[in-house]
Amino acid sequence: MASDLAQNDLREELVVVPLRHPWRWFSGAVIVLVIGGLGWAMAEAQIQWEDVPGFFTHPVMLEGLLNTIVLAVCAQGGAIVLGVVIALMRLSANPVARWFAVGYIWLFRGLPVLLQILIWFNLALVFQNISIPMLFSVPTNVVMTAFVAALLGLGLNESAYMAEIVRAGLSSVDSGQTEAAKSIGMTPMTTLRRVVLPQAMRVIIPPTGNNFINMIKGTSMASVIAFLELIHAANNISSRNLEIMETLFAAAAWYLVMVSVASIGQHYLERAYGPR
Amino acid sequence: MALVEAIGVRKSFGHTEVLRGIDLEVERGEVVCLLGPSGAGKSTFLRCVNHLETIDAGRIWVDGVPVGFRAAGGKLHELREHEVARQRRDVGMVFQRFNLFPHRTALENVMEGPVQVLRRARSEVRAEALALLERVGLAEKAGAYPGQLSGGQQQRVAIARALAMKPKLMLFDEPTSALDPELVGEVLDVMTSLARDGMTMIVVTHEIGFARSVADRVVFLVDGAVVESGTPADVLDNPQQPRTQQFLAKVF
């Protein structure tokens, strides 16, 4: 009893000692040191930093940038459209359509993109003409330019991923929503457009944004078939002046710029379709 | 002719027969309450009336039209989904879980049917929709999203959404079962006033008090069949069948 009393008397005067975090200071210092060291190494490295801005705005580099953007946007856009179609087939009541969708996803998701690009680019070796009997026929090597081959390789692979993303989005919408739409007399198309898709977007957009960022970087694979995207452009420039790292750094800067812009766009899209 | 005529309606889910030959007629302006233990097939029958479920046998006519079919050349031809959609315009439905469109405001929910399905002008629909929200006592909530409304308010918006299509018939599938007890009254009040205005209604409910005061007829279902049917006074106060007596003894 007596000791309790003594503690109560003291309670008013107790000073609070905050918990110290010495390891936070230590680990923070280590990180700063490592970054500083890397920065120093880069500064000391045998790189002509002053040449990088010139390569960044070099006409060949800008042409590569434009081609990269066009290829990424076309491939992703086509993949979204195809993906929606394949997802609807996957959810269709028609068993043939369902199995086609499963097979499509299995094939185009299962093969490496680089392999798919090479197969499309070399298609002329096995099919001299692309034709539908009695409608049209064109020589394969005229149609299958580097751009088309890269577009097909990247776009078809991406469409298989998009199909799965769209399917997950559509399945995430409660069946009560479809029933409510039906009960006010909506047709299946209107239900999809007005009720299901807008709600599915919340599930569809974040992974689509991630995939688009991957797509931007994936266009670099088109360099192996001599499509003039950023990396091929960098190689073109450095083959003349041998400043390999300098041109690659300039290309790297452009990738970071594109990815940053895409990330910001994704943020606003997610906000537009976010929860109410 | 009765507005709703159901003859020998049968429906199975897998090997379970949920409806075993239901006969039911609902006259214009009549309010019919479907009562019975859970699993009796009340909700399934209601969903068959606007073809949310396809029946296996029997027929349902609404306003002389076979639901889900077109009569031609002495045969019934199964309708395509967009043709069924046209039939559903005349039948409103209110769900246990409200099923409001969460990405649209209360007003937009009510306007959706007339604008998107009936292709009517936005301005004129908007005035009607506001009047409907006023009628269910939610004029001041027109701009609110469903997530910002209580269960009772959401259900009243859902009733307004169904009424916006100017239906001949309203189906209520346990409209107060998902509500907190203190919110049940506001929804039942709206339904009562709707009944007084002469709306034809089929109501699946466990609210015996509502059935007693509002229904013209009470139909008691057990195991997918009609056990007893008649005025609330007959069925609720003087039940003849042992199954009805058992059920009512448990409910009261």
From TrEMBL, chain A:
<dbReference type="InterPro" id="IPR043429">
    <property type="entry name" value="ArtM/GltK/GlnP/TcyL/YhdX-like"/>
</dbReference>
<feature type="transmembrane region" description="Helical">
    <location>
        <begin position="101"/>
        <end position="127"/>
    </location>
</feature>
<dbReference type="InterPro" id="IPR000515">
    <property type="entry name" value="MetI-like"/>
</dbReference>
<feature type="transmembrane region" description="Helical">
    <location>
        <begin position="64"/>
        <end position="89"/>
    </location>
</feature>
<feature type="transmembrane region" description="Helical">
    <location>
        <begin position="23"/>
        <end position="43"/>
    </location>
</feature>
<dbReference type="InterPro" id="IPR035906">
    <property type="entry name" value="MetI-like_sf"/>
</dbReference>
<dbReference type="GO" id="GO:0043190">
    <property type="term" value="C:ATP-binding cassette (ABC) transporter complex"/>
</dbReference>
<keyword id="KW-0812">Transmembrane</keyword>
<keyword id="KW-0472">Membrane</keyword>
<feature type="domain" description="ABC transmembrane type-1">
    <location>
        <begin position="65"/>
        <end position="266"/>
    </location>
</feature>
<keyword id="KW-0029">Amino-acid transport</keyword>
<keyword id="KW-1133">Transmembrane helix</keyword>
<protein>
    <submittedName>
        <fullName>Amino acid ABC transporter membrane protein (PAAT family)</fullName>
    </submittedName>
</protein>
<keyword id="KW-0813">Transport</keyword>
<dbReference type="Pfam" id="PF00528">
    <property type="entry name" value="BPD_transp_1"/>
</dbReference>
<dbReference type="InterPro" id="IPR010065">
    <property type="entry name" value="AA_ABC_transptr_permease_3TM"/>
</dbReference>
<feature type="transmembrane region" description="Helical">
    <location>
        <begin position="248"/>
        <end position="269"/>
    </location>
</feature>
<dbReference type="GO" id="GO:0006865">
    <property type="term" value="P:amino acid transport"/>
</dbReference>
<feature type="transmembrane region" description="Helical">
    <location>
        <begin position="134"/>
        <end position="156"/>
    </location>
</feature>
<comment type="similarity">
    <text>Belongs to the binding-protein-dependent transport system permease family.</text>
</comment>
<keyword id="KW-1003">Cell membrane</keyword>
<dbReference type="GO" id="GO:0022857">
    <property type="term" value="F:transmembrane transporter activity"/>
</dbReference>
From TrEMBL, chain B:
<dbReference type="InterPro" id="IPR003439">
    <property type="entry name" value="ABC_transporter-like_ATP-bd"/>
</dbReference>
<dbReference type="GO" id="GO:0016887">
    <property type="term" value="F:ATP hydrolysis activity"/>
</dbReference>
<dbReference type="InterPro" id="IPR027417">
    <property type="entry name" value="P-loop_NTPase"/>
</dbReference>
<dbReference type="InterPro" id="IPR017871">
    <property type="entry name" value="ABC_transporter-like_CS"/>
</dbReference>
<dbReference type="Pfam" id="PF00005">
    <property type="entry name" value="ABC_tran"/>
</dbReference>
<dbReference type="InterPro" id="IPR030679">
    <property type="entry name" value="ABC_ATPase_HisP-typ"/>
</dbReference>
<comment type="similarity">
    <text>Belongs to the ABC transporter superfamily.</text>
</comment>
<keyword id="KW-0813">Transport</keyword>
<dbReference type="InterPro" id="IPR050086">
    <property type="entry name" value="MetN_ABC_transporter-like"/>
</dbReference>
<keyword id="KW-0547">Nucleotide-binding</keyword>
<keyword id="KW-0067">ATP-binding</keyword>
<dbReference type="InterPro" id="IPR003593">
    <property type="entry name" value="AAA+_ATPase"/>
</dbReference>
<dbReference type="GO" id="GO:0005524">
    <property type="term" value="F:ATP binding"/>
</dbReference>
<feature type="domain" description="ABC transporter">
    <location>
        <begin position="4"/>
        <end position="248"/>
    </location>
</feature>
<dbReference type="GO" id="GO:0015426">
    <property type="term" value="F:ATPase-coupled polar amino acid-transporter activity"/>
</dbReference>
<protein>
    <recommendedName>
        <fullName>ABC-type polar-amino-acid transporter</fullName>
        <ecNumber>7.4.2.1</ecNumber>
    </recommendedName>
</protein>
